[in-house]
């Protein structure tokens, strides 16, 4: 392959001269995908009233998206490898915009649920092609650290940005704009991608593993669906147990099939690599705790402290700023000098410390002294962790496996978030019910005891989240043994991956 000079001072030879503008487009698309998991949270009460949703069904506005996203990501990654990353990226953007338009125009709960599932399906195509484009665009270790710093900041803060945007759009426009807002973003990204991103031809030797897709996606959907149903039904409900059992069986058959399939959906050598497996597991555990925190803090601020949607969204600003700082100013600067676990382990300990602050919440906690410090610690910890996870998990992957590896990182994130939300919410609900039943002796105190019971449930669940975060740090410390990336000697050309 020929190596060309970019003409850009200080740029590695063979580098794409438009790579930093390309990063803006990739980051914009990734932000849209990540924040859509949470942007409708604050808008949910308005949408429920407008469309006449029942309390039992309203969860599907959130779950339909994460189920489709998490369940179809592996297939989306393989499609990116087969068709070509740039083409898949643009198709994903167009489909995501169309699904967003359909959801914004929804006239019934079923129409909104279907549109959210469709959004999740196109996000499953878009996200892995975005990450694999980033991996193949930035090949110099120093530049790659900066690029992954931006990407990691968006991956970590996108959910918090979703809360802020959801609050502003709901209060000043309409809940439907939480979906319509994706359309102009997607249009800008489509034109930007067409002009700025290099075309990556598909790999004709990649074949879609249809049985693997059915088994893998079916297993993930069954498990995530089972966890989501555990909150309203209880862990011993026959449907919940059946779903979890079916999910485990399907995933077991999936692993068996991947050892025998001629073109496996998930080549097991990707997961068998100790560093990648450690990154996937660390990501899943970290996001389990983080999504639980989002859920509880949103309800705590709105229901217990009486914040408006905008005030609730703005309350997440310190968390967002801390994630961006931890990722771009600390993690990105250190990634080329220290081993990944030297960032991931302290990151998870910091995040656990932030969660520990939230275990002290009461029905009358002050934001500045009892909520914001926890957010800052949590944000710094997540910022330190996300970027080395993304960079390490995708490092040294064969070009034909780049899409599916990227999809596995995103799958661990979405499945971890879905499971964490359901698991911790069930713990919180059960603890609240038990507290209220034990303390409600005087009917005149019902409002106070109920509020205290809700907060008690949150703090019990957050203690579990602290444990999950510490477990993520332990996994990172024991499993991720990768060394710092080697810098190329000055003047040595850094070839692009063969695509």
Automatic annotation (TrEMBL):
Top-level lineage group: Bacteria
Residue ranges of every copy of the Major facilitator superfamily (MFS) profile domain listed in the record: 22-485
Pfam families in alphabetical order: MFS_1 (PF07690)
Primary localization: membrane
Cell membrane as UniProt keyword: yes
Membrane topology designation: Multi-pass membrane protein
Locations listed in the record: Cell membrane
Ranges annotated as spanning the membrane: 20-40, 60-77, 89-111, 117-136, 148-168, 174-196, 208-227, 239-257, 278-301, 313-331, 343-363, 375-398, 419-438, 458-480
UniProt entry keywords in alphabetical sequence: Antibiotic resistance, Cell membrane, Membrane, Transmembrane, Transmembrane helix, Transport
Family annotation (InterPro entries): EmrB-like, MFS, MFS_dom, MFS_trans_sf, Sugar_transporter_CS
NCBIfam families the UniProt entry points to: efflux_EmrB
PANTHER family: BLR6921 PROTEIN, MAJOR FACILITATOR SUPERFAMILY MULTIDRUG TRANSPORTER MFSC
Protein name (Swiss-Prot/TrEMBL): MFS transporter
Taxonomic path: Bacteria, Bacillati, Actinomycetota, Actinomycetes, Kitasatosporales
């Amino acid at each position: 392959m020929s190596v060309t000079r970019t003409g850009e001072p200080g740029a590695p030879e063979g580098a794409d001269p438009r790579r930093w503008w390309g990063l803006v487009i990739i980051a914009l698309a990734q932000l849209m995908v990540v924040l859509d998991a949470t942007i409708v949270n604050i808008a949910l009460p308005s949408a429920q009233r407008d469309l006449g949703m029942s309390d039992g069904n309203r969860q599907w506005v959130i779950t339909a998206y994460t189920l489709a996203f998490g369940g179809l990501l592996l297939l989306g990654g393989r499609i990116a490898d087969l068709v070509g990353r740039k083409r898949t990226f643009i198709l994903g953007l167009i489909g995501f915009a169309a699904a967003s338009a359909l959801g914004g125009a929804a006239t019934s709960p079923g129409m909104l649920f279907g549109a959210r599932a469709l959004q999740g399906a196109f996000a499953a195509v878009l996200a892995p092609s975005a990450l694999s484009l980033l991996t193949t665009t930035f090949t110099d270790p120093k530049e790659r650290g900066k690029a992954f710093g931006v990407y990691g900041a968006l991956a970590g803060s996108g959910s918090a940005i979703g809360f802020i945007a959801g609050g502003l759009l709901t209060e000043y426009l309409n809940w439907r704009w939480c979906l319509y807002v994706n359309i102009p973003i997607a249009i800008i990204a489509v034109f930007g991608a067409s002009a700025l991103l290099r075309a990556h031809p598909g790999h004709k030797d990649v074949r879609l593993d249809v049985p693997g897709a059915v088994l893998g996606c079916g297993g993930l959907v069954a498990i995530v669906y089972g966890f989501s149903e555990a909150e309203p039904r209880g862990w011993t409900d026959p449907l919940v147990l059946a779903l979890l059992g079916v999910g485990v069986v399907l995933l077991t058959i999936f692993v068996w099939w991947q050892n025998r399939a001629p073109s496996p959906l998930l080549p097991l050598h990707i997961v068998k690599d100790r560093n990648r497996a450690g990154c996937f597991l660390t990501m899943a555990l970290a996001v389990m705790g983080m999504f639980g925190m989002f859920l509880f803090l949103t309800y705590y601020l709105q229901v217990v402290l009486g914040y408006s949607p905008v005030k609730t969204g703005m309350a997440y600003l310190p968390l967002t700023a801390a994630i961006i700082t931890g990722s771009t100013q600390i993690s990105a600067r250190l990634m080329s000098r220290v081993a990944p676990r030297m960032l991931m382990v302290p990151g998870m300990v910091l995040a656990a410390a932030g969660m520990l602050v939230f275990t002290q919440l009461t029905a009358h906690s002050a934001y500045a002294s009892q909520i914001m410090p926890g957010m800052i610690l949590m944000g710094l910890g997540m910022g330190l962790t996300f970027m080395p996870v993304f960079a390490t998990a995708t490092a040294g992957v064969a070009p034909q496996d780049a899409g599916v590896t990227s999809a596995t990182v995103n799958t661990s994130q979405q499945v971890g978030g879905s499971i964490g939300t359901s698991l911790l919410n069930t713990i919180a609900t059960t603890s609240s019910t038990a507290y209220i039943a034990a303390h409600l002796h005087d009917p005149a105190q019902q409002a106070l005891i109920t509020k205290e019971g809700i907060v008690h449930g949150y703090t019990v669940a957050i203690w579990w989240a602290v444990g999950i975060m510490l477990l993520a740090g332990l996994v990172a410390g024991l499993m991720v043994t990768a060394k710092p990336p080697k810098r190329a000697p000055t003047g040595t050309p850094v070839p692009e991956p063969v695509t």
